[in-house]
Amino acid sequence: xxxxxxxxxxxxxxxxxxxxxxxxxxxxxxxxxxxxxxxxxxxxxxxxxxxxxxxxxxxxxxxxxxxxxxxxxxxxxxxxxxxxxxxxxxxxxxxxxxxxxxxxxxxxxxxxxxxxxxxxxxxxxxxxxxxxxxxxxxxxxxxxxxxxxxxxxxxxxxxxxxxxxxxxxxxxxxxxxxxxxxxxxxxxxxxxxxxxxxxxxxxxxxxxxxxxxxxxxxxxxxxxxxxxxxxxxxxxxxxxxxxxxxxxxxxxxxxxxxxxxxxxxxxxxxxxxxxxxxxxxxxxxxxxxxxxxxxxxxxxxxxxxxxxxxxxxxxxxxxxxxxxx
Amino acid sequence: xxxxxxxxxxxxxxxxxxxxxxxxxxxxxxxxxxxxxxxxxxxxxxxxxxxxxxxxxxxxxxxxxxxxxxxxxxxxxxxxxxxxxxxxxxxxxxxxxxxxxxxxxxxxxxxxxxxxxxxxxxxxxxxxxxxxxxxxxxxxxxxxxxxxxxxxxxxxxxxxxxxxxxxxxxxxxxxxxxxxxxxxxxxxxxxxxxxxxxxxxxxxxxxxxxxxxxxxxxxxxxxxxxxxxxxxxxxxxxxxxxxxxxxxxxxxxxxxxxxxxxxxxxxxxxxxxxxxxxxxxxxxxxxxxxxxx
Lengths: 325, 293
Description:
The structure holds two protein chains of two kinds. Helices cover 42% and strands 18% of the residues of chain A. Chain A is built from twelve helices and 13 strands. Chain A has helices spanning 13-23, 57-65, 79-82, 85-105, 144-162, 184-189, 209-221, 238-244, 254-267, 274-282, 289-293, 303-319, and strands at 4-8, 30-35, 46-50, 69-72, 111-117, 167-173, 175-177, 193-197, 203-204, 206-208, 226-230, 236-237, 248-252. Chain A has a seven-stranded parallel β-sheet with strand order 3-2-1-4-5-6-11, with helices on both faces. In chain A, strands 7-10 form a two-stranded parallel sheet. In chain A, helix 1 (13-23) links the parallel strand 1 (4-8) and strand 2. In chain A, helix 1 packs across helix 7 (209-221), helix 2 (57-65) packs parallel to helix 4 and helix 4 (85-105) packs parallel to helix 5. Chain B is of the alpha/beta class. Chain B folds into two domains: 9-38; 42-202 and 237-287, Glycerol-3-phosphate (1)-acyltransferase (3-Layer(aba) Sandwich). Chains A and B meet through strand 12 and helix 8 of A and helix 5, helix 6, strand 4 and helix 7 of B.
């Protein structure tokens, strides 16, 4: 059986790396990359299709190429990447709807893998210490990427209802971190001094970029249907993370932190959405036992190790342990 | 300080003192580098045992002169659910029980308590509660801790218990919805009914400023003979004599699977636990000769 995989969101770092990793995989015959803008550097071995979300071009591509697996990584996290919140929401929600409509119409399709986020759980004081996949969110996200992701997951569930023979795997990832990936969180930790919320110390988890790509690859080859939390084992607190960076935390009252966050977002230093601020206040921890048991995958990096890898790449070994300026 | 400095210092004393200082410096350096482990709940055992508990120990030993009994009813290993009466305006009784199990239990067990969501909403309080190993009172968390083999502490009276007037001291309030019994049944862990005498007299609440409480978003606002009359001084607890008794465990492993789904059984067990605590309270009160003695 020849295998053709379609990957969305290839013009951004993770999507691009995943597509090029698949392109070198001998078990895969053809990789088609889709995004709304062309990648900065063409990806070797990947056929790129620039798809406008308002046209059903994806359906045509999928039917002609007889795609059997779709990996949806095209949900954008920050308005800056899309050129505004309106465009972001269109790409995320309408784009997903177009993609899923095409999936429903493509008879050759067997598998759909969705890169979602653990931010669909929200974050707040009434949450249990750990989220399982069926924990009801008590502080459901109301805006931005997290809200988009909730909607995306909703459309994915309705596709599962309509095409029940399809193997659909949704991953709710903890924050990606590692030497190369850029996210609002890495921008936050790259600040020279790190603002935090006074009186709170969020519990954080990370997923190393390599582990994230590995779990997606595994889903392409050994699919298990369902929704799975993905995070490195263990927890580190925000204060602990900042100390491990050898940086100084600047605790400030919640209101001031929110106002500062808005300024940072506007000036493009780091992206602070409402959801991000709630996350940095209350934190979020995932129960990953379903991933280990049912999906038989264990990330190589614990949350602490993944963070350490990020710190090392950003500060270099010579700055490790150096006194603070 | 000056007295000690004037005395001739022997060599051994000097090393002991310097060693301690060096140890403290190493401890602070290690903490500042973030090189310590916490569990999934955010429990920081090192910070708890070496710093937080040290702040409570003088209160436990010198101020309240806590006497414990029945510690052998708490298992040395494996899960157990400590259920106790709640009183005294702020949850000092919970903190003293935590010290009791860590210091006086032969296996030095950490008590992982279940707290109200208000605790985790409040800045500093919520942060410290997590670091001391406590978590939100909800069944997933209770069962997760019990499955891990932890000793879990629950105060089912909640705010009704600590916020009750002094005239109702040592009268148990309603025991929530019996969620703790369901958690014990699910995980087949024993319930240890625990009675605490002494906390009622720490801040005798003679009135409740309800309007002020509503304005501050608190479940009650206590008026005691000294608070808020004496300002911050009124926040010093009265030095009552405390007794904590860990009662005979109530096993739950002989019930069939799915027993937690039988509301009548859950109600009956809840009542049994409540009754046992109430009886022990009367017994301890009779045993304690003087409130501040």
